[in-house]
Amino acid sequence: MLELATLLAQAGAFSNAWLWSAGLTFVGILVLLVYPAVVLRKYVRIMINIIDEQAPDCEPDPRNGNGLHGEDVEFRAADGHLLRGEMLRGNPDRPQRGVVIFAHEFDSDRRSCLRYGRFLLAYGYDLFTFDFRGHGQSAHETGYKPRQFPSDRERSDMLGAIAFVGEWLEQQGRPREVGLFGVSRGAGAAILASAHTDHVKAIILDSAFSSDTTLEYFMKRFATIFAKIRVVAENHPPMFWRFLRWLLFRECRRRYGGSFPSVRRAMRKLGRRPVLLIHGGKDSYIPTAQSQLLYDSAYGPKQLWIVPNAKHNLSALAEPEAYQRRVIDFLDEHLYGVSPVPAPANRSRCIEPPSQAPVRAPMIGAAAVVAPVRRDA
What we know:
Order of helices and strands: HEEEHHEHEHEHHHHEHEHHE
CATH topology of the largest domain: Rossmann fold
Oligomer: single chain
Mean pLDDT: 79
Strand content: 5-15%
Number of domains: 2
CATH class of the largest domain: Alpha Beta
Number of strands: 9
Number of helices: 12
CATH architecture of the largest domain: 3-Layer(aba) Sandwich
Distance between the termini: 98 Å
Helix content: 40-55%
Largest sheet: 9 strands, mixed
CATH superfamily of the largest domain: Alpha/Beta hydrolase fold, catalytic domain
């Protein structure tokens, strides 16, 4: 009986040890599964709040209030949504140089073209400017909430504008060739649309960014601010950020009603179409590295100009004459088909385009810095 009691006691002790071991293992597995889920959910919630509340702080430009004086039109986006736009005709005393489609920034409207591209009219370029859906006079879409990041809806709007201008050009017996001029979110929409049409011959991108890389930048930036254990937030593996980015875009589709394609990937699909990227060196919202990433993703002739003292979307105000000269020279060469010429007296303070082609664009300098066009065969 004593031996039996001893065996039973040993069996009970073993059973209790096994139960404790199994329980600790279960708790450990639960912690390993639950903790990352809690962290991911917290990060996604933080980023959604940022997307809902944060937008670029764009200083007002008094020229935006002067109004437009063109032909008001209605047209359809590629998905059929009704949009409003305006065709501004270039200087009739100048040769017709082409049509440039302007894509405004988030929380703005077609009138912002006056800040960035009014001078195009004086040089003989026609300018088509329009309101993205949910902005200006264009209709809102039920169930879709526009955000700072270019979505499939803005891509559809841009494609509709390109198709409308193409038909307008055909009616005048002119080729269906256009230039695009986009600012911030509008710049991203211009790239996304250009990847789906062959009618775009030149693309100007002011303060451009790709939604995926920019959101990852914001996630890393704010994770270190809100995380309770800073060293953990600073040492998440790359896979963590990629998975978090996927979760965030999934939540954005559910919350805002649209998808957010990668502008960086779309840039790689442009082939050899020329691009001019402009970015403010003091942009506190979108870092200059985002334009550098897009520059590195482009295969054709490309320029990257960092304007040292400009904030977000304000390069045109910080360096107005250099801005004007670079845009005109770029469009003349790649849309109109005329190589840049030395500036006349009234444009003498504008910076001349450089003649050498470095491998990589410099980022910040003491003066306006440019990565010249690569002239590959």
